[in-house]
C-alpha cells in the first residue's frame, strides 16, 4: 500500500470527503452511515458544513473494520492512515471550539 502523511487538515479533509463518497456509492453503506449518525438524506448537506462532520465520517469508518479495510483498499492506503486523518480533524475541531 502507498504511504502518505495524512496529518495535515487539508489532506485529512480530502480523505474524509473520499470516505463519504465511497459510502454514497453503495446504498447499504450510506444507509448505515445515515442510521448511525441520525442524519437524513435531506439534511446531509447542512450537516456537512458543521464542525466535526468530517471527523465523524472517519470515526464511522473506524468503528466498522470491514468498511474501514474496504475503503483503505479502494484508495490504496493503510487503514492506520484513516485513524491519523481522524485525529488531525478531531484535534483541529477541538482547538476551534470556544
Report on the architecture of this protein:
The chain is mainly α and 98 residues long. The chain has one domain (9-96). Helices cover 72% and strands 0% of the residues. The protein is built from six helices and no strands. It has helices at residues 9-24, 27-37, 44-48, 53-62, 65-75, 79-96. α1 (9-24) packs across α2 (27-37), α1 (9-24) crosses α6 (79-96) and α4 (53-62) runs antiparallel to α6. The longest helix has 18 residues, at 79-96. The model is unreliable at 1-5 (pLDDT under 50).
Search tags:
98 residues; mainly alpha; 0% strand; globular; disordered N terminus
Distance between the termini: 39 Å
Helical content class: over 70%
Tell me the overall shape. globular
Task: Give the integer mean of the pLDDT values.
Answer: 88
Output the radius of gyration. 13 Å
Give the total of domains.
1
What is the number of helices? 6
* Uncertain residue segments: 1-5
The biggest sheet, with number of strands, parallel, antiparallel or mixed sense and barrel status, is: none
Number of strands: 0
Beta-strand portion reads under 5%
Order of helices and strands: HHHHHH
Helix vs. strand class:
mainly alpha
Concise structural overview:
The chain has 98 residues and is mainly α. The chain has six helices and no strands. α1 (9-24) crosses α2.
Amino acid at each position: 500500500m502507498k504511504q502518505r502523511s495524512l496529518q495535515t487538515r487539508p489532506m485529512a479533509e480530502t480523505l474524509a470527503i473520499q470516505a463519504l463518497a465511497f459510502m454514497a456509492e453503495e446504498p447499504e453503506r450510506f444507509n448505515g452511515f445515515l442510521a448511525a449518525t441520525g442524519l437524513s438524506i435531506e439534511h446531509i448537506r447542512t450537516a456537512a458544513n458543521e464542525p466535526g462532520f468530517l471527523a465523524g465520517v472517519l470515526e464511522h469508518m473506524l468503528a466498522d473494520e470491514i468498511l474501514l479495510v474496504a475503503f483503505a483498499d479502494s484508495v490504496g492506503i493503510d487503514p492506520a492512515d484513516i485513524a491519523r486523518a481522524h485525529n488531525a480533524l478531531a484535534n483541529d475541531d477541538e482547538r476551534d471550539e470556544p
